[in-house]
UniProtKB/TrEMBL annotation:
Gene Ontology molecular function, alphabetical: acyltransferase activity, transferring groups other than amino-acyl groups; hydrolase activity
Membrane-spanning segments: 26-50, 62-88, 109-130, 157-177, 189-207, 227-245, 257-277, 283-306, 318-341, 353-372
Any Gene Ontology biological process: polysaccharide biosynthetic process
Domain annotation Acyltransferase: ranges: 29-371
Highest rank taxon of the organism: Bacteria
GO CC terms of this entry: membrane
InterPro entries with a match to the protein in the record: Acyl_transf_3_dom, Acyltransferase_3
Name by which UniProt lists this protein: Peptidoglycan/LPS O-acetylase OafA/YrhL, contains acyltransferase and SGNH-hydrolase domains
Length: 396
């Protein structure tokens, strides 16, 4: 199996792989985050128009030289989902019960909501300045800030955060149950449910074309199945099982079964990527290859976290900053980026210069959102007791 082969190719696990380090910081994951964010940005910038702030095709595209990334770059979202599965499993590991479930929910809310609200407000202002009707925009804004399972949203990327929120809810329920449903059990539940969905959808794609098959494909492609994690659940499951393997002290059949499960869900993930990229065969294949490489890099980064930390110690702060910046970039490159591209192109600049200026504005805006986001997070965190600080006071 593919993942088992990758696992053995990188060698026997070092001691750092076997130790349970809940608070390890994985620089490789930060690198993958910013890489995934850039992929998604290029995917969308390849479709932005120069005459209007909208998604267009053909000669109306502002940056035709990015055409290779259209559709292909969307695989960055699936990379984000794998990372989320691993990181959330790591942050949720430990004791269960009501207090820990509430703490988990609070930490996740502080992590994702401030940047979402700030970016949603920026998108609201940008789209209003472009001339869109304010009342529909306010409704889109309201649905976005509460992560409503029903769109439309103020920004086209909010749908993925809705799926993230559903995943967080499921993990919180597992914590609340005091792990009667373990995180590993939840990973299997999510992964197998999603695998069945993908198998059915794949079957409909390979059967002879008919009206009934097309209707079923259309039905199964509705956003509700994304919200239920049917379409993308395997990616979260891959990340969660990676963490389970990392923290598992068992050997033999138990570890082997987890690696086999990891391979099954990974293959299902590849099938989902191949079906979802609406391009020619070579683009679909390249998207799958990119995802495999990212998972491979993630495995290596997890297994050799200490060695990589030493190797990149001089650049640790930069890598960590870029990893944190990936979230604001993701939130601010689509709706706002669309308006920025239209505005910059209206200046009559050459395509290459217009692209660099547009990306620079998005990056600058994202850095500003990140700065303000961290100020808000620090203020909110000060409202709650810090267990480590309280233990230190008692020790003194």
């Amino acid at each position: 199996m593919l993942i088992i082969s990758i696992y053995h190719q990188v060698g026997a696990p070092p001691k750092s792989w076997k130790r349970m380090k809940r608070h390890d910081h994985y620089l490789t994951i930060d690198i993958l985050r910013i890489f995934a964010a850039i992929l998604v940005l290029l995917n969308h910038f390849a479709t932005f128009g120069w005459e209007t702030a909208s998604v267009v095709e053909g000669d109306h595209v502002a940056f035709g030289f990015l055409s290779a990334f259209a559709g292909l770059g969307a695989v960055g979202v699936e990379v984000f989902f794998v990372i989320s599965g691993f990181v959330i499993a790591m942050s949720a590991s430990g004791d269960g019960g009501l207090s820990h479930a509430i703490r988990f929910a609070r930490i996740r809310a502080i992590r994702i909501l401030p940047a979402l609200w700030l970016s949603a407000l920026v998108s609201l202002v940008a789209r209003a300045c472009y001339g869109e009707d304010l009342m529909p925009l306010l409704m889109d804004f309201s649905r976005s800030v509460i992560l409503s399972p029903k769109g439309p949203y103020i920004d086209g990327v909010v749908w993925s955060l809705v799926i993230e929120a559903v995943f967080y809810f499921l993990v919180a329920m597992a914590i609340l149950s005091k792990f009667r449903l373990s995180l590993y059990g939840l990973a299997k539940l999510i992964g197998f449910s999603s695998a069945v969905y993908i198998l059915v959808l794949a079957g409909l794609h390979v059967v002879p074309q008919s009206t009934d098959a097309d209707e079923w494909i259309s039905f199964l492609s509705r956003f509700q199945f994304k919200v239920l994690m049917a379409q993308h659940g395997v990616f979260f499951a891959v990340g969660m099982i990676l963490f389970s393997v990392k923290s598992d002290h068992d050997k033999g059949d138990s570890r082997k079964f987890k690696l086999e499960l990891l391979s099954v869900f990974s293959v299902m993930g590849m099938a989902e990527i191949f079906m979802s990229v609406d391009r020619a065969f070579e683009y679909r294949t390249m998207a799958v290859v990119i995802w495999i490489v990212c998972v491979f890099v993630m495995i290596v980064g997890i297994k050799y976290v200490d060695l990589i930390g030493v190797y990149f110690r001089r650049n640790k702060s930069i890598i960590t900053y870029l990893g944190g910046l990936s979230y604001p970039i993701y939130l601010n490159h689509y709706s706002v980026g669309m308006v920025i591209v239209w505005m910059v192109c209206s200046l009559g600049l050459p395509d290459g210069i217009a692209f660099l200026v547009s990306v620079s504005i998005v990056l600058g805006l994202s850095m500003g959102v990140m700065w303000l986001e961290r100020k808000i997070q620090t203020a909110i965190k000060s409202w709650f007791p810090n267990p480590a600080r309280e233990r230190l006071k008692l020790a003194v």
